[in-house]
Amino acid sequence: MSSNAPHSNPEIDETLVQDEDELRSALRRNRGSGPPKVPGYRLIRELGRGAYGEVWLGTDVNTGREVAIKLFFHDGGLDWPLLRREVGKLVQAVTERRVVQLLQVGWEAERPFYVMEYLEGGSLADRLELRTFKPEEVAELMLQIAEGLAFLHSKAILHCDLKPANILLDSAGQVRLSDFGQARADGEGGPTVGTFFYMPPEQANLSARPDVRSDIYALGAVAHALLTGRPPYASEKASRDLASSSSLADRIERYRELIEHAPAPDAHRKVPGIDRALLDIIDRCMAKDPGDRFRNAQQVVGALRRRRESRARRPLLIAGLLGPLILAVALGGIGSFAFDEASTAARQAIVDRSLNANLGIAQVVSAAVDRNLSATQRRVNREAERMDLRALFDLTDEDERRQQAQTLTDSFYGLYQDRFFYSWVLADADAMALARSPFDARVIGHGYAYREWFSGRVEARSGDQPVMATPRQDVGLTLAFRSTAEGQPILISVAAPVRPRSAGAAGPPVTGVLAATLHLETFNEWLSSTEIRRADSECPDRFVILVNRGQVVRHPCPAPSAPAPPVGPESFFHQPSVQELLNRTPMESSDFLDPLRPGERFIAAARRLDGHPDWVALVLQNRQAAVAPVEALTERLASLARIAGGLGLAVVAALWLLLWRVTRSPGP
After folding, report:
1. Cα dihedral 194, 198, 203, 204 sign
2. Average confidence score pLDDT of the chain
């Protein structure tokens, strides 16, 4: 609520008088005359003073009722036609609730008077001294004033001086129009002027004939003042210019020119919370051209009532809009929650099924690899136990020994070449290579005491030959290594000790070592059948990793930035995600991070080989690819839901627009 004080200039705000000399004479005659006396009433205090008289608060000595008494100045300066006109208009409007009620007239008193009901609510001018009004308050006051004007106009009465000071309020805040000193009958001749900034420009003419549209302009000006604290076109400068004029006619002419040349007022448009409908009504009331205003007060009443009804329907319209929206949002929220729950459950079901499948595949793969490794070891060990091979080391002729050794390894190579064996090597107890198949002269006669296939211990560098060669004592597998031959295949050696003929199948001494190398890619080629491949991906959605003593010997698709097999423990086996997986029971994870494919997540399962516990088979399935069908279905359903939601909102919006068009009030 604004507390701006309204524009106030006593010389300008008063109703204009048409004979200023007569007014000054009347004031001199009544100055110092003391409190007036009115038969039958006791006067309490003066309420106000105007151009032709004063208003007192009094009480009826018989009933004690408080009344307002307007006393005219002494009859020497009294305008009898003015008095009769004002009283006559009050008598005509005696039944209208929006007009102050006339109770008694004293024509023959020393000072003529008439008695009206006293309205303790004061005037709008009194209220406006304290604060401006909210738009809704102004709209209600305008409606009540317009109702009063409509009644007066129906009686062919024009008020001609409507302003906040002439609009009183009863105890319930209801409007009563008062002060009919300038009132005229519609079409009545004779000059009439009102109050600057409230009277319309066509009334600023001593020969003007106002009509009902003059009161309608004043109604708009009152509304402007109630909203902003000032009537339209009012300013300190304008008030000074008008006050400095030498005559009434000059003032009126300046006022008319001021309004005609000034831009339309817009201060009321900046009031917070004001609506377009009320602005349009006020602007139409204040139109400079009478032809652009409402034709009568009843039209103003109708426009204000339609606005009120429209605003009363606004909650229904809002409810009509928000109700379906809230329902749609609620249903959408419930549907979204249920949809998310169903999607999550579907994803989890896919993950659980993939975990079970991967555990089963890991079990099958580990059993198959375990069986193949054991079979390979048995083959090599069986050949190492052949008597003709063991007898070879009884020969004393070195050349003959090497020749027979080469013959035997060639036969082994020919026998097993379709079983993934890459090469065969036979060395004596001093780690000197006697034969290699396929033959390689660079190997024959070279010492291999540092190699794991000979010693059974962790392999040393080729330059770090042990002081004493110590051959392995049992059959075993080595770590994988990359061959220097063409293609650099990944190989693994299977080696078995060779014992003398007289030593039996086991126990010292060891006279030599027979080793065969396996081509791991062809050895494990069958694993590809367990993997899920897509044409658009270089890496299978599901693949198998083999680890031997912490070393990755098989990984079908490490990332370009990751090392290729064989991969040491520090890059894979010792990584936290791998250790966490291997320490679980069962060994499974629905969110596994593959150190050799960073940034991707997998559904993983692992299993150690029963016969070779240092070996681990891991089955990894790309999590994104696994849940892709659910994600695709989810996205399709979400798209359909968005389309359905959009159509639903469009229908709601269309219905609301239709309702708004049907129910909105037409313009003024």
Report:
1. positive
2. 86
Q: How far is CA 66 from CA 101, 118, 166, 266, in A?
A: 13, 6, 19, 42
Q: What is the pLDDT of residues 414-457, one digit of tens each?
A: 998 877 899 999 999 999 999 999 999 999 999 999 999 999 98
CA pair distance 264, 260, nearest whole angstrom:
9
How do strand 433-437 and strand 66-72 relate by DSSP bridges?
unpaired
Give the DSSP letter of residue 291.
G
- The structure tokens listed for 442 are 């660079």
Q: Does the pLDDT of residue 5 top 90, yes or no?
A: no
CA dist., res. 383 & res. 490, Å (int): 24
Looking at this protein, which amino acid is placed at residue 155?
K
- Give the span between the Cα atoms of 420 and 554, in whole angstroms: 15
281 with 141: CB under 8 angstroms?
no
Give me the amino acid identity at 614: D
Give the pLDDT confidence of 85-118 residue by residue, as tens digits.
Answer: 666 666 665 567 888 988 888 877 878 888 999 9
Query: What are the residue ranges of helices labelled H in 118-192?
Result: 124-128, 135-154
Q: What DSSP element (H or E) covers 622? A: strand 615-622
Contacts of 453-459 with CB under 8 Å at 24 or more apart are 453/425, 453/478, 453/493, 453/495, 453/513, 453/515, 454/427, 454/495, 454/513, 454/515, 455/431, 456/495
CA pair distance 302, 304, nearest whole angstrom: 5
Instruction: Please name the residue ranges forming H helices in 514-609.
Output: 520-523, 576-582
For 84, phi then psi, to 5°, come to: -65, -35
Determine the residue type at 29: R
* Phi and psi, residue 268, nearest 5°: -70, -25
End-to-end Cα distance, the chain: 27
Please work out, in degrees rounded to the nearest 5, the angle formed at the alpha carbon of residue 346 by the alpha carbons of 341 and 347.
100
Predicted confidence (pLDDT) at residue 127 exceeds the cutoff of 80 = yes
For residue 264, the 8-state DSSP code is P
Cα→Cα distances 250→204, 205, 206, 511, Å: 10, 10, 11, 142
Output the DSSP codes for 534-579: -TT-SS-SEEEEEEETTEEEE-S---TTSPPSSB-GGGTTTSHHHH
3-state secondary structure of 185: strand
- In this structure, are residues 422 and 519 in contact, taking their beta carbons and an 8 Å threshold? yes
Mean pLDDT in residue range 72-86? 60
What span, in angstroms and rounded, lies between the C-alpha atoms of 171 and 218? 25
Residues 6+ apart with CB under 8 A from 334: none
Report the candidate in 297, 285, 140 with the shortest Cα–Cα distance to residue 217: 285
pLDDT interval class at 397 (50, 70, 90): very high
pLDDT for 613-632, tens place per residue? 999 999 999 999 999 888 88
SS (H, E, C) 225-243: HHHHCCCCCCCHHHHHHHH
What's the pLDDT score for residue 7? 47
Is pTM beyond 0.90? Reply is: no
Please name the residue ranges forming H helices in 587-627: 623-626
Q: Tokens 């080696």 correspond to what residue?
A: 495
Beta strands 512-519 and 551-554 are unpaired
Report the distance separating Cα 567 and Cα 560, nearest Å.
Answer: 14
498 burial via Cβ count (<10 Å: 0-12, 13-18, 19+): buried
Q: Is the CB of residue 140 less than 8 Å from the CB of residue 195? A: no
What's the alpha-carbon Rg for the chain, to the nearest Å?
56
Length of the chain: 668
